[in-house]
Design a protein that fits this description.
mainly alpha, flat
């Protein structure tokens, strides 16, 4: 199941990265952009195909493969070794795909060539920036200067006498809760909006 979902994620990201291929081809972009549909309809149709239809078709294909494998193994060895793919973990994976896929949908509209590779590169650069920021923040919080004199961080007073308790609350409660909200409820609307503007800019 894990390997199948890895293949589904990679295949879905590549498929999503090319969904606006006509938009970046001079010979075909004029015809594509002059179709009697709005920018919102273009965006929603692309999102439904890549974020809803693709993962559902993928998991149905996986279910058929598992069913066929179980039938063959049952006839040959009288055992059915493969579990159903319709589990809570599978649906969670699909939801994660639907969220992360929105990044590649934006890359499909924003970049003109090599959309998938450029999106992956952009994510890598962003990851490096985040890691550097976290490292610098950690150094500032745990250095001897911060430990000796204390300071303010996110509304919390950080000093040698209360650093441990407040940092524990920060890292175990505030940051994870904020990250969950951003991931599950903000990422898709945000990237849909910026993708809409990217399509609109190309149309202009």
């Amino acid at each position: 199941t894990g390997l199948y979902f890895i293949a589904m994620f990679i295949g879905g990201y590549i498929f999503t990265s090319n969904v606006f291929g006509e938009l970046h081809q001079p010979q075909r972009s004029y015809q594509y952009l002059t179709l009697p549909v709005s920018t919102t309809e273009r965006l929603l149709s692309a999102w439904i195909i890549t974020a809803v239809v693709f993962p559902l078709v993928s998991i149905l294909m996986m279910a058929v493969i598992v069913l066929a494998a179980n039938l063959i193994m049952t006839i040959a060895l009288d055992v059915a070794p493969f579990r159903s793919v319709f589990t809570q973990g599978s649906w969670t994976s699909i939801k994660v795909y639907m969220v992360t896929q929105s990044v590649f949908l934006f890359g499909a509209a924003y970049f003109r060539k090599n959309n998938f590779l450029k999106t992956v590169l952009a994510l890598f650069v962003l990851s490096v920036i985040v890691q550097i920021t976290v490292a610098v923040t950690g150094w500032a919080l745990f250095s001897s200067y911060g430990g000796e004199y204390g300071g303010e961080f996110g509304g919390l007073t950080i000093g040698p006498e209360n650093m441990s308790r407040q940092l524990e609350t920060l890292f175990t409660s505030y940051i994870p809760a904020t990250a969950r909200i951003i991931f599950w409820y903000i990422m898709i609307p945000f990237f849909m909006v910026v993708t809409w503007f990217s399509i609109k800019e190309r149309q202009v």
